[in-house]
Amino acid sequence: MAKVVIFSGAGLSAESGLKTFRDSGGLWEEYDVNVVCNHDSLEKNEALTLEFYDKRRRELEFKAPNFVHRKIFEIKEEHGSSVAIITQNVDNLFEKAGIDNEDVIHLHGFMPEVRCRSCEGVFDIAYKKIEEFKGGICPNCSSKLRPNIVFFGESAPMYEKLSQELSDCEFLVVIGTSGEVISVNGMAKAAKYSILNNLEESESIDDTLFSKVLYRKATAAIDEIAEKIDEYLK
Length: 234
Ligand code: APR
Hints:
This protein is of the alpha/beta class.
C-alpha cells in the first residue's frame, strides 16, 4: 500500500479549462444535478442525461493536462507504488499526462468509458457520443449502455480501494476538492502529515486538521507539494 496519497477533485483540472462543480459558474449551476446525475436520471430523463455526458466526453478531446497533472506524473514515475493517485475526477487528464489508467483510482467513474446497464461490461469509447458506439447497445448482451459514471445515490465500488489506500497512508495531499461529497477531515486526522491545496476555504473542510494549507491555484502550489513528498520519501 502507498504511504503517500494524492487525493484530488475538480479544482485540479480547473486550470485545464474544465469546470468545477460548486465554484461560482460551476457545472451544477448550469445543470440540475437531480436531473442529470441522480440514481433515477436514466429512468426519468434519459435523453438529457445521455446528452449531458456526451457533451462532457466530447469536450475532453480538446482539453490538455496542466502543470499539476504533469508534475504528479513525474512524482509517480519517481516514487512508483509509494504514491497512490486517487481522484473524484472523471476526466482523463492524468492519463493524457502519461500516467497508466490502472495507476489512477477514479472514484466516480471514467468519462471515456460506457457500461452495460445489464451485464456491466465496460467499453472505452474515447470521445464518441454513446449512440455512435454500437448504437448505444451492448455488443455482448444487447442491453442499453450508460456512462460509466457514479450517479448520486448509486454505489461507488472504488470507495473500497480508497479505504484500503487510506488505511496506511502516512502523508496525505488534498488538491482541488470542496470536501462536500467525500469528507477529507477524517483522512487528515489519520495521516501523520497532510497538505491541503484549494483556492479558498470550504465549509466542509476543517483546515486546522492539516499540517500545511496552501490557498492558491494548484499550478502555483504543486512545486512546493512535490518537494515535500520528495523530502518525505527520501
Ligand atoms: N487550484 C486549486 N483548487 C481549486 C482551483 C485551482 N485552480 N479551482 C478551484 N479549486 C478548488 C475550490 O476552492 C473548491 O474547493 O476546487 C474545489 C472544487 O470543489 P467542487 O466543485 O465541489 O469539486 P469536487 O470536490 O471535486 O466535487 C466532488 O461532486 O458533483 C460531484 O461527482 C462530482 O466528483 C465530484 C464531486
